[in-house]
Write the structure tokens for this entry.
Amino acid sequence: MVEMSITYDGQLRCSAAHGPSGTVIHTDAPRDNMGKGEAFSPTDLVGVALATCMMTTMAIVAQRKNIELAGTTVRVVKEMVADPVRRIARLTVEFTCPVALTPDQRQMLENAAAACPEHRLET
């Protein structure tokens, strides 16, 4: 169990504290939804959570197989829709790995990414 605490700071901004580490992150509503867009929006964090979960899960598998993934980058594109309700319509996640992978290694890492807890979230 991990406890986190969130405080509403006003003006559509929140502070979220991670209990174990004390790290604090801030969110702001996006410009297209009454905010200033000066920090990650809550829905931006959904995309970041998915991509970092996928990358971390891949890295765990890669480490077990002695594959170095340092320098791998991940790009996330979040698309929102407003109809019938405002929600995330799509998250596109693209990985760029600086090392050459064999087809088997690539498939193994793609399978690992698809098995991350965020990717398997049921709504």
Q: What stands out?
A: Residues 24 and 96 are 29 Å apart (CA to CA). The chain has a mean pLDDT of 94.
